[in-house]
Amino acid sequence: MADQAFVTLATNDNYAKGAMVLGQSLRNHKTSRKLVVLIGPHVAEPTRAVLHKLYDEVVLVDVLDSGDTANLALMKRPELGITFTKLHCWKLTQYTKCVFMDADTLVLANIDELFEREELSAAPDPGWPDCFNSGVFVYRPSMDTYGKLLAHCEEKGSFDGGDQGVLNSYYSGWPTEDISKHLPFIYNLSSIAIYSYLPAFKQYGHEAKVVHFLGKVKPWNYSYDAKNQSVKGHSQDPSTLHPNYLLQWWQLFSTSVLALMKAEYGSQPFHSGCEAGEEAGEVTSKAQASQSPAPPQISSQERKQKWEQGQADYMGMDSFENIEKKLDSFLK
Ligand code: UDP
Ligand code: GLC
Ligand code: MN
């Protein structure tokens, strides 16, 4: 199995926290495959050292950027041009087959069976199911494919400004040609889908193997109260059926990853997001904590607009619990 690997990408220290939790979750579920993380030049030294502890290979790559501000603006995700960097994963030709996973995914069970699939296998995107979501996909590294993908980027661009647009137009046969290349949704359960089809989640959600925190606000943008084991700014009704994946992400971060970060950062300050004093290994100064991207506070008008554009904050203000409260108040 030494010629097969799980691969992720982190161009900065924030996404690197995601990569750390992802790597730890793959190890906890006893993968027999290698783990590789691609990093950009801006990732700090101590962060790289932590990644070295969790991953078999840490590969430095150039940051590629689509520069397509128009399409990225349509998605309201200006930061995603940089996801072209993901295409470097095809250069890992020391492996014959790989599974790419976004740094904002969390593994809930062993998923080594994904290596039985062929390029390009992926799960449907929850927003447009005739496209695949490029947060989890099976592929075969090849310099030839890498060259063709870059040429495709140059000639055709990307319809979303990120890698998902390019990959879907390059692998354009995906929606119709071969059903074995459609991964079950449980290998890329996006947190958005839980709320958009709750009964399906109640029926099938317990089978989930990978959760994907797709969307602008990522787990590391919240802060965590380790003493009370709760994620700040995110309330969940204990009576709801679905597991709190965000809390699971933070529990893994605080129990396994934080100690590795503390060991590497030593007396240098870093922002962990944990807020329970020494017990939680808190090393963040207040000033740094305030620099972290807190979940945005927006007006009710802006919130309505976001809803209408399909950009609800499902993990925060627009959580199922809050929607339910609002509906109850109308019914009353
Ligand atoms: N990514 C990165 N740096 C960035 C943005 C993205 O390394 O500044 C990588 C990271 O692996 C991330 C993936 O590209 O998971 C795709 O971006 P993201 O997950 O934010 O997109 P979404 O799934 O929310 O559409
Ligand atoms: C997405 C995918 C992500 C990809 C981004 C840009 O929604 O989840 O993996 O990088 O679009 O194309
Ligand atoms: Mn993602």
TrEMBL record:
A GO-annotated cellular component: cytoplasm
Reported cofactor(s): Mn(2+)
Subcellular location, principal: cytoplasm
Pathway entry: Glycan biosynthesis; glycogen biosynthesis
Class in the EC hierarchy, top level: transferase
InterPro entries per record: Glyco_trans_8 (IPR002495), GNT1/Glycosyltrans_8 (IPR050587), Nucleotide-diphossugar_trans (IPR029044)
Catalytic activity of the protein: [1,4-alpha-D-glucosyl](n)-L-tyrosyl-[glycogenin] + UDP-alpha-D-glucose = [1,4-alpha-D-glucosyl](n+1)-L-tyrosyl-[glycogenin] + UDP + H(+); L-tyrosyl-[glycogenin] + UDP-alpha-D-glucose = alpha-D-glucosyl-L-tyrosyl-[glycogenin] + UDP + H(+)
Signal peptide start and end residues: none
GO molecular function annotation: glycogenin glucosyltransferase activity; metal ion binding
Localization, UniProt: Cytoplasm; Nucleus
Spans annotated as Disordered: 276-315
EC number: 2.4.1.186
Top-rank lineage group of the source organism: Eukaryota
CDD domains: GT8_Glycogenin
Family to which the UniProt record says this protein belongs: Belongs to the glycosyltransferase 8 family. Glycogenin subfamily.
Protein name: glycogenin glucosyltransferase
UniProt organism field: Clupea harengus (Atlantic herring)
Species classification: Eukaryota, Metazoa, Chordata, Craniata, Vertebrata
Gene name, Swiss-Prot/TrEMBL: gyg1a
